Every structure is written in structure tokens, then in C-alpha cells.
Amino acid sequence: MPAFSPRTTTFDAAHRRDALRRLSSEPYDVIVIGGGVTGAGVALDAASRGLKTALVERVDIAAGTSRWSSKLVHGGLRYLAKGDIGVAWESASERGALMTTIAPHLCRPAAFVVPLDAVTSDVMGGLTGAGTVVGNALRLASRTPGRLLPPPTFLSANDALLHVPCLDPEHLRGAVLYWDGQIEDDARLVLNIVAMARSFGADIVTRCAASEVSADSLTLTDTLSGHSFRAHGHVINAAGVWATEHESRLTITPSRGSHLVVRSETLGMPRAVFTAPVPGHFGRYVFGMPQPDGLTYIGLTDEAAPGADGIAPPVPPEDEAFLLETVNRVLRVPLTPADIVGRFAGLRPLATLASGEGKTADISRKHLLLADAGQPITIAGGKLTTYRRMAQDAVDAACARLGREEKSRTRRIPLVGAASADVLRDVPAPARLVRRYGTLAPQVWGLTTEWPWLSEPVAPGCPTIGAEFAYGVLAEGALTPEDLVERRTRVSMVEADMEAARATAERVLATVGDHGAADGARPMTTLAAALCAHRAALGLTQAGLARQAGCTRQYVAQLERGERTQPSAAISLGLCRALGLHGAERQAFLLLCGHPESEPSPRDVGPVDAVAAKLLHLIPAPTLLHDGTWHIRMLNAPAQALLGELGFTVRPGVSLLSLVFAEQHRDHFPAWEPWARYVLAQFKRDSLSLSHTPAHAELLRELRALPDFSRLWRHVTPAQDGAPLMPIRYAPPQAAHLTFLLARVQFVGTPELWGIVFLPEEGMKSPQFRVAGVEQR
Predict the structure, then answer these.
(1) Element (H or E) spanning 54, and its range?
(2) How far apart are CA 730 and CA 52, in angstroms?
(3) Quick one: fold of 106-183+253-350?
(4) pLDDT tier at 358 (50, 70, 90 boundaries)?
């Protein structure tokens, strides 16, 4: 089965056991309560700042409100109608980040059609149009590209029917067309956020209930075993509608948002979201939201629901009647209860202070942060689109308590699977899997090579396949059939499919549930699966891989289809080089090729190895910076040797883009291709700045203690762009001089990147090459 990256994003049953052990015996910087989108965002923000982080969830990831949204990443148009420009701006800004950087594989543009008919006044049409124009201005201000979200326009009646054939043509006069964001799957977004937090070292524990919560400790109970223990760390309460269980100063008023599910073919296969105005409520609509899998959601209501079940609140008959009555006002053929194939509702946590401070109508559109001294930090309210900003505020409060100064970087961190549309088009996996898993799709599809029956639908007529269930168990912490049908996939949206798929879910759990490894990594058992997974992780096409490996595209295609199973030794080694495989990964791949590599002979561990170990401790993911030509041109022997110790495979003609993918893309951030292109376009020679930090000082102290090093080093001093810098100069006795710099690289509009710059001669003038290991910190 496909291997998962050494810097793992998986959180399977084995990880859960290990995390529980650590929580019971080790202190943490931050412990997050709640596995919804807000808690997941908090865990990612904290872990990406370098905080030791754990997330605990009583049931499962995205078990509550976060999976019951309307699947929209909206820019706040509804808030413009209420005059709340601030909330609208925040929504537009966060929408832009999600669609362009954080989760472009899950978020897509969606056309919205607002019908104008005989009962829609000219004033209403004008106000709607004006609102979309203001919304477009927010889109421009938030720098969301027009190619993603085009400006609004008016449609003729005929054009409106082309987008939404089910509209009633008799009264249709035209429509307003505007664009907003739609998400493939809200639960999958949460899973991707959690996986990214995992990649930064966060521990993820489901079926773990929190109680007796204080500011810096809490009691945790493993609900599977019943074992309880006290865990220590600054607590952030992100429990959504359950937040009041741990914060008495807070009042949560649950608001139920009900939806109906119908087959899109019943509505003539609409190509756009369409709206039906709620009579007597300006700015409030019921939406018809077509989904890629052939379903359309009709929603939503906004009704107080005190005491409702937060996990799976039922849709009451009055909500169903209201939704049908409202949407039928604009339809040519009315929907009936017989057309409904599923129903779902979520409880939005409207947060106010128990003291009565603030107005519900105001706070319900914003999030509420409580961070009084001696109390746990609580973050509540808000909405799916702005989860990242909520998390940032909560972790800022935690950092203040910890005395840490790290700033949030999550606006610029792509989630697992994220990549540009150009890269996703070439991912070697079925299009539906690419839409849901991005660059991870080959890992999912590769499971069908190990177990061919996983390529079959989990229920008759259902688009979900068994491999998605298996991946949910192996990589995403699914423990029960409900986890698989309700959250790792959305089979449960169609009630008949949910029942039919349960048997497949149980079979998958029985088959792959015991395959977890303690470290979260699993070997690949077929060459085809390995090649597909590695190539997709690098963003390489079959032709691109073939060129670098010294074979033909057809040969690579045959290998990936399993038509060839034992390439020659030369091609096997070429594939290893092209894929950037090292160490255990290289040995495993060559074994699959039929050419096992003998163990390297023992060698003396000298000062170079010690230096390399120290550098790798600070910088675990090497990457290349350019030398002015985007290629490494000249390497002297000692530099080549040390680069080999650091895990580089350096050969003539390796460009920035390919080495970013080969050394870092798979292990650290799964989708750096858009970032790398941005750097290629924006890099300026004077943008290299260098600074001395406590982290560097600690590293230098360790380096200075190494044999033969103390007499050969010079201290790195703070420097502005263009100012002189005293480099570290290391000359091990058995090699010529090698100079390197510890550097902070800052490109305009990008995160800070810590790294090492190697120079073949002392000083900054005319370096022959620069190599850096970089990591966001």
C-alpha cells in the first residue's frame, strides 16, 4: 500500500495509543479541546508556531457542527446586507486565502444565480446587484484573483435558464449572477487541517473526553478503555456548542441550520447555486446548492434549537416544509417530499457572555475570545470560513501566557493535498479522488492495487469507493463504521446509501484495521503503487519523470499500470534519482524494482557527521535556493560530501522546482508548487536577510563544542539587507574549507524561512552555489 511521508500527516489507531501515553506522562504547551474546524485550526496554528500541541476530541474529527455546513466558503455578502462591513471583510479575506493558498484543492468558485421575477421588485433587484458589487470590491481588496471569482453581472432570462434549468420561465425576468466559494466537503477540510497539524508534530486523540478543566490542566478519559488521567498544558476550549461545559461565563445559543438533499437530475442538473428569497426577510435566502457527486442541497434554516443533539440534530417537519415551500417559489416543477433522499442539520454556536454583555445579533456573526488570567482560553462563535482567524486569536492568547513571541503563519501554509489546478490535472488518480484528496489521491487509489475490491463502490450507485474507507482507517484515524460513512466520506448524505455501505465499512475495518504501524509509516507493497504515489507527491508528469529517469513515458505508464514489474537496474536507479529517494525509502523502492541495495559499509563518524546531525536537528527538510541561474553549477568535493550527509542528492542541472519537490514537497508541505512559482517570479537578490536568533545561538553553542570546531568558527551577527556578514567557517582536518551561513530568507509576501547557505569560499561575493534547508518556524 502507498507509503505516507516520513514527516507523517497520519493519525491512526497506533498514533492514538502513543499520544495517550504521552499526554499522561509529559507536559504540553497547548491542549486543545474540540475536533471541529476551530479546534483543528487552533492545533495547526499552535503546532506550526513550534508549540508542543495536543488535540482531544470526545467523539471524532468533525463529529459536530463542522460537517453540517452548507459547504460554502462565502465572502460575507449576507453581512453586507446587515451593514457589517468588518465581518464581511474578514470573510472575504479568509475566503481568498482558502481558495488560493490553504485549500485550493477543496475550494472552487461557484456561480450564484439570484432570479428576478414578477414578484421581485426593481428595488430588490437593484439592491441585490449593488450588494454584489460591494462584495466584488471586497474581493478586489482581499486580492482574490478575478480568474477565481469574476465580477458580478446581470443575466437575461434565457441565460439564467442555461445556468439553472429548473427555474420557472413564466415569471423569470432575468437574474443577478455573482461568484463565491464552495467547498468540496467541510469534514474533509477539517481532516486536512488536522493532518497538517500532525505534520507539525501535534498529537491527535479522538474518543477522549475532557473534564475538570483549569487554565493549565484537565482530566482526560479514554472513552474506549475508560482510563482517566490528569494532563498538563495551557488549555484552549474550542468545543463549539459544548464550550459551556468548560466555561461558565459563556452562553451558547444553538441555531439550527437544516438542509434537504435531492438528486440534481430532479432539478435538471443545475450548473450554479440558485436562490429563493424568504418572504418578508430582506437579504435572507434559501439556496439550491449543486454538488459534484450529483446531489443538490436545499438550505438553510436559522432557528433557535435549545437542547438539540449537537452531533446529529434531526430536521424537524416544520423545517422541511419551510424549505420546500420557499424553494418551490422559483421552480418550474415543485419539489415534493418524495424527491428528498437525505436530510441534515447543524447547530451553529451563537456565543454571548453569560453576564449579558454584547448583543446576540452582533456576536453571532463574530467570534468571542475569553482569555482571562487563571481561566482556560475559550474561543467560540464564528463560522467555517473564518476558522483560521479564530484559531490565530486563540493561539495569540496562549503565546502571551507562555511568553512566546512566534506569530501565526497559517495564512501561508497549504494543507495536505493542496496544489494548483495545473498540478492537480496531472495527478495520476481518478478525477473524483483528486477533487477530494488533491495530491494525496494516488495514495488512496494505490490501495486498490493491494486490495482490488477497494476500487468498487461502497454501495450500489454510490460514487464513494472502498479505498476511501481504507485510507480513512490507515491515515485519518477512523475507528468505527460511523467514522467512515459519516465523516471520512459523506455517504450518509443519502440515507439509503448509508445503510448499504455499512457492510463495506465493517469489512474495511476488519481488513486494514490491524495494518497500522507504530510510527505511522507503512511500506508500499507494489511498484505501481509506489511509483504513482511518489510521482504525484513531486507533481511530476509521466513524461517529466521519464526524462529525468532516462526512459520513455510509455515505459513509466506501463510500470504504473502494473504491466511491467521489474525494470532494469539502470532504470531503477534513474527512477530513484528522479524521485529524490534516499535512505529507507530508496531501499524499499529498489526492493520493489527487484534490485535490493546492499547495506552501506560501516564508516567512521567524524566531525562532518556531527555537524550534519546538528544542522538536521534545526532544519529537517532540505531545499535549494538559486545561484542566479536556478541551477547548482559547481560543487567542490567537501561540499558534495557534506551535502550528502545532509540528505541531498545533487546532480548537474537540478532546478529549484524539482529539488523543492524532491526534498521537501513530500515530507513537509504537500503543495509547494504555487509557492515555488511565486518565488521564481518575485525573488530579488537584495531580499536575502540574515539574523541571529536564540535558536541559532543554541545551535552555535552545540557546534562550538564539537571536536576541531571551536578554533575555526566565527559568530553570525545581525545584519540588514546588503550589510556585511561574518560567516561561519568550518574546516574539518580531512577536507578543504567549507563556509556556511545560518540565514533567515524573507521573500515579499511569503513566510520567513530558516535555512543554511553554503558558500565554496569565505564571504558573500559571487557564490558558486547556495543550498539551504528551510522550515517555517
Answers:
(1) strand 53-56
(2) 33
(3) D-Amino Acid Oxidase; Chain A, domain 2 (3.30.9)
(4) very low
Q: Identify whether the C-beta of residue 105 lies closer than 8 Å to the C-beta of residue 113.
A: no
pLDDT tens, 564-591? 777 888 788 888 888 877 766 777 788 8
Cell reading at 194: 488536522
What is the C-alpha separation between 756 and 648, in angstroms, rounded? 13
Predicted model pTM: 0.69
- Decide: 12 and 475 in contact? Cβ < 8 Å: yes
The CATH number that domain 421-512 falls under is 1.10.8
What 158-164 contacts at long range (C-beta under 8 Å, 24+ apart), as own/partner pairs, is 160/113, 160/115, 162/271, 163/111, 163/113, 163/270, 163/271, 163/272, 163/274, 164/113, 164/115, 164/267, 164/268, 164/270, 164/271, 164/272, 164/274, 164/288
Question: Whats the size of the chain, residue-wise?
Answer: 777
Helix (H) or strand (E) holding 659: helix 656-659
For residue 419, what are the contacts with CB-CB under 8 A and spacing of at least 6? 104, 105, 427, 438, 439, 539, 670, 671, 673, 674
Cell of 87: 465581518
Tens digit of each residue's pLDDT (9 = 90 or more) over 244-276: 999 988 888 889 999 999 999 999 999 999 999
Confirm or reject CATH 1.10.260.40 for domain 527-592, answering yes or no. Answer: yes
Choose among 697, 705, 698, 683: nearest CA to 772.
Answer: 683
